[in-house]
Every structure is written in C-alpha cells, then in structure tokens.
Design brief:
Blueprint: E1 2-7, H1 12-22, E2 27-34, H2 38-48, E3 52-55, H3 58-67, E4 74-77, H4 78-86, E5 93-96, H5 104-112, E6 116-119, H6 122-139, E7 143-145, H7 148-157, E8 165-172, H8 190-193, H9 203-211, H10 213-225, E9 233-237, E10 243-249, E11 254-258, H11 264-271, H12 286-289, H13 304-314, H14 318-334, H15 342-352, H16 362-379
Parallel strand pairs: 1-2, 1-5, 2-3, 3-4, 5-6, 6-7, 8-9
Antiparallel strand pairs: 8-10, 10-11
Bound molecules: NADPH dihydro-nicotinamide-adenine-dinucleotide phosphate and magnesium ion.
C-alpha cells in the first residue's frame, strides 16, 4: 500500500491525482490540503478518509473543523498546518500540487521527513532548486516529476545512464496564440488567454502557457531535475501535444514519449515511482492524428521563454524575481488591470532593477517574493 498526501488537492492536478488513486486498490490517501475551498475539501475527506487535512486560510480551517466533526479527520490551519500535513508520519509520498511559491516550505518539510516528492509545483525548483536538490539527496528521497514534459524525460531516461544524455528536447504546444505576432497580441482578453488548445489546467498555468512563461519555468525546472545546463536544453514547438518531450543521447539516438494529453499518466507514473500500471482512457490513434509537426518557438513575440532562460543563466535570486514578477503580473492580468503584453514588460523591468543575491536561502527567497510583489503593486 502506498500512502499519499496531497498539497493542493482541490486544484486541477490535485483532483486528477485523486481520480488516479480512486481506481487503484494499492493507493491510499492519508493527507489533503487546500487554500480555501473547504466545500470540495469536505467532499474529499468524506470520500477518501484521510487522517489529516490542512487549510491555508485559518478561518476556513475552523469552519471545516466544525463541518467534519463527525469524521476522524484532524483539521489543521495556516502554513504550520500545511507543513505538518506535508511531514505527517502516516504518508510515504507527498504530491505537491499547490500553485505558487507558497509550496516551497511544505515541500521542504516533506523532504526533511523523508517523503518522496511527486512534484507538480514548479516554483519549488525554479526558485529553490539549489536548496531542494541537495536536500533531497541528503535525506535520500526521490523527486518524481508530475509535469508532463519532465515525466516524459523521466520515462525516456528509464534504464539509461545520465552520462549518455546529450540534450533534452522539451516540447511546447505554442499556446493559444501560436503564429501571431506582437501587434496581434495587444488586445488579448482574459477569456482568449484562458483557452488552451490541448490541455485543461488551472488559470495561472493556462496564462503562463499563452505567454510561454510556462515553458520557461519548465526549462528552469529541467535544469535542476536532470542536472543539465541551458545549452543542452532545447524547446521544440509541437502543436498537437502528443510528443510530451524527448532526449537526444550522445550517439544521436532520440527517445520520445508520446500519448494523448492526459495528466493522469504522468501523475500515476510518479505515484508508482516510475513503474507502469494500467490506466484507462483514450489511446493515441496515429492514423486519426495524421501528422505531427514541429517548429521553433517564436522568442521575439513570446518573451516569456527567453526571459526565463536569461533569469536561469544569471541564477541566484534572479529566477525568484522572474517568477514572482510573473505571478503578480498574471494576477493583475486576470483582474483586468493590465494588458497581456504588460506581463512581459513587468517581468523585464523587475528583472532589470534587481541586484542578484548569489545563493539565497529559503527566508531570503520568500522575502524577495513579497518585496517583488510590493514593488510591482506600487508601480502598476
Ligand atoms: P490550480 O489553481 O488548479 O490548484 C491550485 C491548488 O493549490 C488548489 O488546491 C488550491 O486550493 C491550492 N492553494 C492555492 N493557494 C493555497 C494556499 N495559500 N495554501 C494552500 N493551498 C493553496 O492549479 P494546478 O493544479 O493547475 O497547478 C498546481 C501546480 O502544478 C502549479 O505549480 C502548476 O504550475 C503545476 N502544474 C500543473 C499542471 C496542470 O495540468 N494543471 C501541469 C504541470 C504542472 P483552493 O482550491 O482551496 O484555492
Ligand atoms: Mg507542462
């Protein structure tokens, strides 16, 4: 029996993780956590019977405590609660499916308690990869990727020595605005940006896919997960989203992982630590698909990717500033306070104004995030 705790159980990845678990006899839920959606969390508690549940919002935690008083589930609140849930004794794996840098501290708590991490939360490695990867090694835990691109690489790597890898080829759909030029993006509305052609995801990551910031974050993450430098990571646009990523090996051979766009496969693969199990769902039909096409990303229009790569090359605290500036910009865009292209302007201006801290600790990263938010709020 694998005992699983989920941070962010009410979100897109969280609910799909529960869907995978509900179909497997040897997977069990021991802990759940969300930000504020206690209505859904209550349903999940009643269906999956975890021992612990945590709610980021303390008031909502109290409300949930009253609502589920008839169950055996203990309810925790606030950051302390999230961390306690992440480190709970009764679990083996922690799924980190929270959105945002708020995921860093609970992830660290999980690692220090010896939990394998099924990692969806991008911000953890993007901003604190230099802390997380050595820590995982020290505590002997595995970081199992959930994101489809990193899972594809993890699947393609199966049995190969990391010395045999020459290059990672990370695929991108190109997002809903692929093929458009800058002028054509000036009047993009929130509704347009929330329509992803192939994947159904949370709001923040859907906007990030439209700006290509998401691909930038994935490149930054891949660097840490697979210990590769940026000169050996290439983004390839593959609009049908059936190739989820590829590895080019030193002999020129390439191994790709293909499948329909369904996050339940990478989630399940991570939960079983890289073992294959049956999964229902649509299979890839090549004849129906007809063709798979490729292009280079348009880095001039979709500045999210080159800006992310620049932040990653500079390193230190710059990825945190890139990420925090993007988070704030996406929030302002979703609130219709800025225009689509302002997202790039905000990221670029904020990065230019930042003096890099070389080896930031967790506290510095979190302080810097808040400072970055405040600076942007005062200017926009
Ligand atoms: P969603 O927005 O759908 O879900 C976010 C989850 O985080 C919810 O459960 C939410 O709870 C919880 N949460 C938000 N704020 C807090 C908080 N302060 N304290 C505790 N919990 C909080 O996001 P996604 O599932 O799309 O994405 C989650 C992460 O996975 C992101 O980092 C994303 O980049 C990454 N990812 C997502 C993919 C996808 O297909 N969706 C693919 C690959 C990676 P509540 O509902 O209560 O607000
Ligand atoms: Mg992805």
């Amino acid at each position: 029996m694998k005992r699983i705790a989920i941070l962010g159980s009410t979100g897109s990845i969280g609910t799909q993780t529960l869907d995978v678990i509900s179909k497997k006899e040897d997977l069990e839920v021991t802990g759940l956590a969300a930000g504020s959606n206690i209505t859904m969390l209550e349903q999940q508690i009643r269906q999956f019977h975890p021992k612990l549940a945590a709610v980021g919002d303390e008031k909502k935690a109290q409300e949930l405590r009253e609502r589920v008083a008839d169950t055996d589930c203990k309810i925790l609140g606030g950051m302390e609660g999230l961390m306690e849930m992440a480190a709970m004794e009764a679990s083996d794996i922690l799924v980190t499916a929270i959105v945002g840098m708020i995921g860093i501290r609970p992830t660290i708590a999980g690692i220090q308690a010896g939990k394998d991490i099924a990692l969806a939360n991008k911000e953890t490695l993007v901003t604190a990869g230099h802390i997380i990867m050595p820590m995982a090694k020290k505590y002997g835990v595995r970081i199992l990727p959930v994101d489809s691109e990193h899972s594809a690489i993890f699947q393609a790597l199966n049995g190969e020595s990391s010395r045999a890898v020459h290059k990672l080829l990370i695929t991108a759909s190109g997002g809903p605005f692929r093929g458009r030029k800058r002028e054509e993006l000036e009047n993009i509305q929130v509704e347009d940006a929330l329509k992803h052609p192939n994947w159904s995801m949370g709001q923040k990551i859907t906007i990030d896919s439209a700006t290509l910031v998401n691909k930038g974050l994935e490149v930054m993450e891949a660097k840490w997960l697979f210990d590769m430098d940026l000169d050996h990571i290439q983004v390839v646009v593959q609009p049908q989203s059936v190739i989820h990523s590829m590895i080019e090996f030193v002999d020129g051979g390439i191994i790709a992982q293909l499948g329909t766009p369904d996050m339940r496969l990478p989630i399940q693969y991570a939960l079983y630590g890289g073992e294959r199990r049956f999964l229902d769902g649509e299979r890839l039909d090549f004849a129906a698909l007809g063709s798979i096409t490729f292009e280079n990303p348009d880095m001039e229009t979709f500045r999210g990717l080159p800006l992310a790569m620049q932040a990653s090359r500079i390193g230190g605290s710059m990825p945190t500033v890139f990420n925090a500036a993007n988070e704030k910009a996406v929030e302002l865009f979703l609130k219709r306070k800025i225009r689509f292209l302002d997202i790039y302007t905000i990221i670029e201006e904020t990065m230019n104004a930042h003096s890099v801290i070389k080896n930031p600790g967790v506290e510095e990263i979190i302080t810097l995030e808040q400072e970055t938010y405040r600076k942007i709020e005062s200017r926009w």
